[in-house]
Amino acid sequence: MSIWNRFIGLINAEDSISNKKISVQYNALHYAIVDVEIGLEDYKIHDIGALRYDGAVYHKVSKEELFEFFSDVDYICGHNIIHHDAKYLFTDKTCRWLLVDTLYISPLLFPERPYHRLLKDDKLMSEQINNPVNDCEKAKDLLLDEIARWKSFPERKCRLFASLLKDKKEFEGFLSMVGAEYLNEGLAGVIRDLYKGKICGHADLVMLVKEYPCELAYALALIDTTDQRSVTPGWVLHHYPAVEFVLKLLRHTSCKEGCDYCNTQLSVLYNLKAFFGYEQFRTYEGEPLQEQAAQAAVKGMSLLAIFPTGGGKSLTFQLPALMAGNSVHGLTVVISPLQSLMKDQVDNLADRGITDAVTINGLLDPITRALAIQRVRDGEASLLYISPEMLRSKTIGRILLARHIVRFVIDEAHCFSSWGQDFRVDYLYIGKFIREYQQKKGSRNPIPVSCFTATAKQKVVQDICDYFKQTLNLDLRLFASTASRINLHYSVIHAETDEDKYLKLRGLVAESDCPAIVYVSRTGRTKELATKLTRDGYKALPFNGKMETDEKIDNQDAFMNDQVRIIVATSAFGMGVDKKDVGLVVHYDISDSLENYVQEAGRAGRDPNLSARCYVLYGDNDLDKHFILLNQTKLSISEIQQVWKAVKDLTRRRMRVSCSALEIARQAGWDDSVSDIETRVRTALAALEQSGYLIRGNNVPRVYATGITVRNMDEARMRISKSQLFGRDEIEKTVRIIKSLISQKYIAKAQDAEAESRVDYLADILGLSKKEVVSIVERMRQEGILADSKDISAYLLDAGDSKRKSTILLERFAKLEKYILNRIPDEALRISCKQLNEDAMNDGIDTSREKDIRTLLYFLAIKGYIRKKEDALRNMEISRQTDGETTLNRFEKRLEISRLTLEWLYQLVAATRKGNSEKQIVQFSVVELLNQIISGPHALFTKLDNVQLEEVEEAFLYLSKIGALKLEGGFLVLYNAMDIQRIKDNKSRYKLDDYRMLNEFYKQKIQQVHIVGEYANLMVKDYNAALQYVRDYFQMDYKKFITKYFKGDRVNEIQRNLTPKKYRQLFGQLSKCQMEIISDKDSRCIVVAAGPGSGKTRVLVHKLASLLLLEDVKHEQLLMLTFSRAAATEFKQRLMELIGNAAHFVEIKTFHSYCFDLMGRIGNLEAVRDVVAEAAGMINQGEVEPNKIGKTVLVIDEAQDMGVAEYTLVKALMASNEEMRVIAVGDDDQNIYEFRGSDSGYMYRLVQEPGSKFIEMTENYRSARHPVDFANKFVKVLGKRMKSTPIISMRKENGWVRVTRHESKYMYQPLVKELVRYRGNGTMCVLTQTNEEAVILMALLRKWGIDSKLIQSMDGFLFWNMVEMRYFLRYIDKRVKTPLIPEELWENAKYATFSAYDRSQSLAYVKRCVELFEQTNKTKYVSDFKEFVFESSVEDFCDTSGADVVVSTIHKAKGREFDDVYMLIADHYVKDDQLMRRYYVGMTRAKNRLFVHTNGDSFNQVSADEYLIDPEEYTMPEEIVLQLSHKDVNLRFFKELKREVLTLRGGDVLKYKDSILYDTLTHKPVAKLSQNMQKTLSEWKERGYEVKSASVRFIVAWKPKDAPKDEPETAVLLPDLLLNCNSQDLI
User: Fold this and answer.
1) How far is CA 405 from the centre of its chain?
2) What is the DSSP pairing of strand 612-618 with strand 488-494?
3) CA 957 to chain centre
4) How confident is the model at residue 650 (pLDDT cuts 50, 70, 90)?
5) Least C-beta-crowded within 10 Å: which of 165, 382, 396, 1489?
6) How far apart are CA 334 and CA 331, in angstroms?
7) Rounded to 5 degrees, what are φ and ψ at 770?
8) Are 806 and 796 in contact (CB under 8 A)?
9) String of DSSP letters for 1458-1505
């Protein structure tokens, strides 16, 4: 008897129930099984296999022959034959056979885990590939098993299923084959009978039978299983989405009438006991909230539960989840931001013996992750904990689609609200995810959500409810506890200093005999305080989010188990920690919001019978710390704008790109040292996505299963084992990957052809890292087990160019890289990037750029050549990972591979060239290139041997990183984890309206800090009032609360991120006009024309403080440019006085210094000529690292001094930072550097920029009224002025102005006489037009016995060339080993220099320089100090304090002020605007009195208090001093005198004879006058002057400009000559 007879038998009996006669004839045995191979690309039949009942086998492609093979067959069987094979077989032919599909019946017959051995989801398991006959064998085995299983079912069950599936084409063939019998009516009754106690007794079965018969059959099959973890396969849910609805109706919908099933299985109390062993739920002051919320969830409602901390929140969602797991085999997805908390909850459930919970998060290793994913797929999990970020994973999306999700639970739901204390932009993606999930599933009803938070603030509750209404059309039912904790007693203790705080803390700990939590705001302080307490006898442990996981767990356990009584923690501690006996909570630092405070304090007294105390130790500066922290962590609108600009730059050519967060950060101009840089980028991207600017996905490569070249697993195993490419430990992994790919042979029949072959999916399910999968797949391609696919596209620069830019670029980088690798010693190289670039350029690598060095170091670090550490000030420590020779060999090999790669790609381009586009695309694969390198003609001539695939990939990555080519596709995307698609066009800008939610959140954060501060102040004064304040905060409408507690101006105070006290201290003394500048946060350009004495420096310093403290500008995004090092130093000093140490990090530089910085050079005043123009050009060419120019605010001091180069630089910075604000302050009337190219017209151009604001500052706080009136009248003669308002003196005093008009040529004598006569107690200054006049006046004043100081003007020599400065620099250079100058070395250098030059008059300048550097640099870096010195001039360190009179040229006095000013104005200059502006600068230096001595008529029209005409003729003074510069001495004369000159000191007396100067001790010659100077002395001689004496003024280092690099410098002596006149009549 054949097998069919055994299984089916011949049925001729009457069916007793239906009276329908069914007869199965012998022809039922005539069957065939078929399998068709379809091409994935052409969708045509590639192969056909078939088996016939008589054992015949068919294996051809012809359909005609196949139909002949089927000629005496009645049933054609196959796996997924109805919706797949039949479509291709019967395209033009009606099917006369009955089709039997083994796919659709299998979940009905094998619903229980481990399911059928031959099935994996909807696919047959097969180790053969492209072998349809083998697949027919498998289908036949499955069919026989299915028939056997059907026959094993009770008769009523068979009839029930047959009746439900009747006339459905997917089942009718099978039902016919097994001779199924049917029920005509009464199906509902049979179901109720068969499934009694397993389903609701009152379920509407009649409707289900009628509307959803197939779905009902699948649901009943699942209900029959004894293992609750069996699940309906994902493909069934895809084709029959209503299965979930049917299951819910049968098993998870409580009936009103009540039945045995619902009263037990759907009773929360019954299940509370069953799962957790509790008799009853927790209540809050008698309110049964926990039970109500759990019951609502079981009923399928969406809800928002507000439970206090420790309020049993977890159980409220765990219980319904476990019940749904039991009843409908459903999955509850819990989304929580706290990864450690997820793990705790899973562990806590496991401790209770409940193993249904799983967490998948970023912290898991690949194997644990794969197991977790497997458990979710297999139905072992009914609770899945994930973070919002994980929702973007394709693997997660895929496994969730295959499960029946009954609910989404969102923990910490206040993260949805910008009014909550912890708004998270990534939460806003949750709604979109759920919506898309429901659409893909075709869900009939929306999936309910449960939201949990401990924050009951009205606005937050409203925001959460609105969010779900808008995104998912869900109405959330509210469950809120109004109860407060009556066993907690609060107090606030005022503590002034840190020491005071600690003593008070120690006192509180000493008097408490109970477990205590001490909360601090910064991670570093946890260890510091715990150590201190332990040292003082109170054993304490630290806990903070940044600690190692093991240490965190150990410390938490020690506290929970009472091994230690005190834990010092940040707010990270306590989430989900439930220790009943904590009797003391001390806030060492006050929390940043009342929500957090109440939550943290609420961790005390969890046992209602325990009385617990909560203290805050509160100091006045505590709130400021929160504001500073908020400023540092805040993501400002300008930062999002920078990220958007970066995305636009990256997507300029194509709307979609793959890149890493770090690359976006660098493109945005963010410094690598910014903390949490990747998180910040992701948040910015989430904000841009939320506002519809872009779509972000995960970017992962795919391996196509179509490319498998082996026939079966045996062949694959054999070839893998024999291959040289796989190590022993890799063989097993390789086999698993190929098996996974082969099992997807039926991939064309799946719904999502690509998903399973994605690398991340393979990695996730096989428990391997992505890198391992990629590496193995590449080698399988190399071995030919997988077909090679041209999956990489390369874009070459200038493909058609004869110059070949990509190759030139490669050689440029190679030269620089070799230099860097050779520079690294065996231990480590400590250097700044700038210094390394400077050295490279000095050593002949002219094309070196700091940007290129950073690119190379980044590449060398990720590829394991070097280790690199960098501090906040960008000083690096670089060490090699292998010895020098190995490193260089690896570099040489990569370079050779890179050269060959480019050569080959250029050839490919030439072969496929289309048009003449600048960038050409070629497509290829890595394996193809590798074979080319190994077998190409060049292989004979190069030193390349044994090239590995990894080495080729490294060369690719290198070429891509240096910009020689742009790569897409392949596996290089592993380095680019994100896929970004720009939606908005390239011109659109991220606006304030887009930033609204984040802005709202940050505003709230600021107000919350003020509110918590107010609570502390209230608590000190009135305990009950403070408690009422807290109650009102949580219960009142927010606006009403603010109105009640913050009246009048206090409403404005709480908008600022400064305490009122700090605000008054910073901005309380400013004028209305100054405050207008401070308050302007929106203008693109603020141009301020600031008159003399109007507080320009003050307003700029306060604006810098405002930018940092009130306007969300982070220090690394702020740049201030000045025109002198002295001004930069002064701003730094004054900012430090105002805001303290934060000022250290603000970049305040001269234009030149900043430009040297951009070029990666160390600046010096000798080389400044074209540096600004050059740097501007580099910015425009894109040659500067974005983080050097990524600024959001640019502040310019003395803006009237800008020339074309400076203006071009400013415009280049504005162009590269779309949203950059510019604040330019200057006085167009004081532009006195036209001879250097400065022009206040550029300041005017900034006023013309769109969005500009022009402000005139005309209130003069410096000068008395009359000097101001005099200057106002004088300035009217100037043309092209920007200011239209006259300057107003804000002082009460009148002051005094006297003008003396002389007939005499010389006016030195009368000026000094007047000065002696009017000499008062205040400061005095004599202003001249030339240095020569200033020196003559110095000598005259000295003769009168007046102590005077000259502001030196050094033409032709630089401060750093002074011998004293050189000595100091050389002392440090010889001994310093690191970029940082150790304090001891610094002090030694000072001592050595000051001792060696103690008698030198020039030493004062060096002392002043050192002192100023110490004041403005907390840590002393060699490069910073050198730059400070190189950029300074001698007059910057001219200390005029203590002198009776200061003598200066007008140019050098700019920016200074004196009580009395005497001006010497000789009339032999062309009277143009430039000269008049110079006079204006001079006269506006006077605070009280102004004395003008002139022999010209420039002041004739200006009225003064007194105008005198002096007809007397005056002579030159008897003594004059000539200060000699380089041009006045014979420089070649010094060549052999270095030693002699260096023994001298500034101020030493010299002997003069016949144009030669002699050392008075050794009588040796030390200097000779130049020809020009000798001529000048002859002219003086004719006027009666002889050299009376000489002295050393400066000794400086010098060498000719055209001298070779290695020529040593000469020591040059610059003397003072004192000339004396004997015969007055000669003058």
Assistant:
1) 35
2) parallel
3) 23
4) confident
5) 396
6) 10
7) -60, -35
8) yes
9) EEEEEEEE-S-S---HHHHHHHHHHHTTEEEEEEEEESSSTTTTS--S
Q: Which long-range contacts (CB under 8 A, 24 or more apart) does 141-147 make?
A: 142/79, 142/102, 142/106, 142/116, 142/118, 143/33, 143/77, 143/100, 143/102, 144/3, 144/7, 145/116, 145/118, 146/102, 146/105, 146/106, 146/109, 146/110, 146/174, 147/7, 147/8, 147/177, 147/178
Q: CA-based diameter of the chain, in Å?
A: 157
CA 959 to chain centre: 25
CA 1253 to chain CA centroid, Å, is 32
Cβ atoms of residues 177 and 22 within 8 Å: no
Amino acid present at 344: D
Helix axes 155-165, 213-223, angle to 10 degrees: 150
Q: What is the reported pLDDT for 505?
A: 94
pLDDT of 291: 93
Distance, in Å, from the CA atom of 1287 to the CA atom of 1089, rounded to the nearest integer, reads: 11
Distances (CA, A) of 671 to 99, 632, 1188, 1498: 67, 14, 8, 54
CA distance 46 to 1426: 75
Is the pLDDT at 540 greater than 90? The verdict is yes
**Residue 1225: both structure tokens together:** 């302050």
User: What pLDDT, in 10s, does the model give residues 841-854?
Assistant: 888 898 888 888 98
CB 331 within 8 A of CB 323: no
The residue length of the chain stands at 1627
Q: Which residues contact 1286 (CB under 8 A, 6 or more apart)?
A: 1258, 1272
User: What token pair was written down for 286?
Assistant: 């008698």
- What the block records as the tokens of 974 is 């592993």
Q: Looking at per-residue confidence, does 1569 or 419 come out higher?
A: 1569
Cα 976 to the center of its chain, rounded Å: 15
Q: In what order do the strands lie in the sheet with 488-494?
A: 488-494, 612-618, 584-587, 516-519, 566-569, 540-543
Q: 164 with 219: CB under 8 angstroms?
A: no
CA gap 1095, 1116 in Å, rounded: 26
d(CA 1291, CA 1487): 10
Distance of CA 485 to the CA centre of its chain: 41
The values of phi and psi at residue 1449, to 5°, are -75, 160
Specify whether the CB–CB gap between 475 and 302 falls below 8 A: yes
**What distance in Å separates the CA atoms of residue 783 and residue 523, rounded to the nearest whole number?**
52
Output the six-digit token pair for 483: 């109860």
Task: At 526, list the tokens.
Answer: 């946890």
d(CA 779, CA 788): 10
- Residue 552 · residue 543 · CB < 8 Å: yes
**% of residues, the chain, pLDDT over 70:** 91
| φ, ψ dihedrals at 1288, nearest 5° | -115, 130
pLDDT at 700: 58
In whole angstroms, give the CA distance from residue 232 to residue 115. Answer: 10
| Rounded CA separation 883/827 (Å) | 10
CB count in 10 Å sphere of residue 1011 = 22
Rounded Cα gap, residues 674 and 361, in angstroms: 25
For 1528-1553, what is the HEC assignment? Answer: HECHHHHCCCHHHHHCCCCCCEEEEE
Between vectors from CA 352 to CA 351 and to CA 358, what angle results, nearest 5°?
Answer: 70
Q: What is the pLDDT of residues 785-841, one digit of tens each?
A: 877 666 666 777 665 555 578 888 999 999 999 999 999 998 889 888 888 988 898
- In one-letter notation, the amino acid at residue 430 is I
Confidence of residue 542 (pLDDT cuts 50, 70, 90): very high
In SS3 terms, 658-698 reads as: EECHHHHHHHCCCCCCCCCHHHHHHHHHHHHHHCCCEEEEE
Q: Based on C-alpha coordinates, what's the Rg of the chain?
A: 43
Residue with tokens 């011949």: 10
